[in-house]
Amino acid sequence: MYIWLVKDKIKTLVREAPRSPGVYIFKNDMGDVIYVGKAKDLAIRLSSYIANPASLLPKVAKMVHEADSLDFFLTESELEALLLEAKLIRQNQPWYNSQAKDDKQPLYIQISSDIFPKITTIRRQDITDKKAACFGPFPSSKTVFIVLKMLRKIFPFCSQAKIGTRPCFYNHLGLCRPCPSQIIKYEGQERIRLTRQYRQNIFKIKKILSGDLRRIIKDLELEMKIASKKEHFEEASEIKNKIERLKYIAQKPTSPDLFLAHPNLPGERAAEGILAFWHRVSPHFFVGEVPRLAEAYDISNISGKLAVGSQVTFLDGQAFKKGYKRYKIRNQQGPNDVGMMGEMLQRRFKHKDWELPGLVLVDGGRQQVMAAQKALRRERLNIPLVGLAKREETIIIYKDNGEFEEMKLKRNDPALHFVQRIRDEAHRFAQSYHHLLMRNRLKKIDES
């Protein structure tokens, strides 16, 4: 078997790739684009091309052998990488991306008018059900499948052509639940309940595809509060997870053209954001230099149960994951986010061997900021401290004279985007730890 060799210059470029989502481009010695790919982590994905060439598929090995140069564009999410990848493939039509070419008519998402509506993809000329709801067109079939994959994990739905005698394969994966093939086996109130549950999933998907996502999130938040008050914590946790996933996919992606014009767009945005933010808040502190290291903190729990805290670190405005920490809350009983925040900050700043940040951000209003300040004062630390209150995205500043200053920034202000980004990352990290503990507890209950 012939083994295609990889050029040394490609190996060097691969080793320089960052641990970031993005898009990569291989070009041949004529400067032609021969392959475009995307990755959640560029360093890991690209290293797979050079680690063991003999293990690559022949077509892939030949492509890497022909490659004479490598470029990559950093993005802020996998979804942005997907959109940029699709644009570059359409522009360059690389030979090794032939399987990604799609010259057919754009796809639509169709939701049938059945008692148990089916969700399928369809092209315009194939639409025959006049009562069906259709959404689109979507310029890329890959984009359609990504959207449906995201939604199906949140609101399961059926895709099989006919109702069978037993639950479908996707039911076992949690992607068709409740399954119509299972619902029809029940009678009376249970059948009515399961049918309503399935149709509610479809209704919410319709609303999201129609652009009414905010209303769905508000409805779910209300459902979560009701479940929590009834101490249905497993149900509340599931709803909370749906809300977080919906908020993630609701983020407006950046235009691929912007990444092409600015290959280091995330870094540029980060620098612009922290400079703008520091320009707004620095007059309230006796510190002149822009902080390189910033830490953000958040709490996650359901009515005080399985309470955890998160610490995320940003270096020069970008996530520095080696500095991430997570905490189990030990000394607080019941729903007391303020006390939990104080406990976490106190434990963090007792570590004299950890590098101190130049800025501390807490998720919350005046009470959370005050709890954080007490923890800092206990360790005789004077670090600029701010909070971000969720309801109106108000920045709470604890000034050196002991007073509070509230600041509201415009929605398109880079300073607000920076503080939201670091706050949201702390929230995501806390949520992931809380969900891990919840899953472990439920597993123990099932095993007992």
UniProtKB/TrEMBL annotation:
One of its GO terms (biological process) is nucleotide-excision repair. Residues 289-376 form the UvrC family homology region profile domain. It comes from the Bacteria. One of its GO terms (cellular component) is excinuclease repair complex. Residues 19-98 form the GIY-YIG domain. InterPro entries: GIY-YIG_endonuc (IPR000305), GIY-YIG_endonuc_sf (IPR035901), GIY-YIG_UvrC_Cho (IPR047296), UVR_dom (IPR001943), UVR_dom_sf (IPR036876), UvrABC_protein_C (IPR050066), UvrC_RNase_H_dom (IPR001162), UvrC_RNase_H_dom_sf (IPR038476). Residues 214-249 form the UVR domain. One of its GO terms (molecular function) is excinuclease ABC activity. CDD domains: GIY-YIG_UvrC_Cho (cd10434). The keyword Zinc-finger does not apply. It holds the Pfam family UVR. This is Excinuclease ABC C subunit domain protein. It comes from Candidatus Woesebacteria bacterium GW2011_GWA1_41_13b.
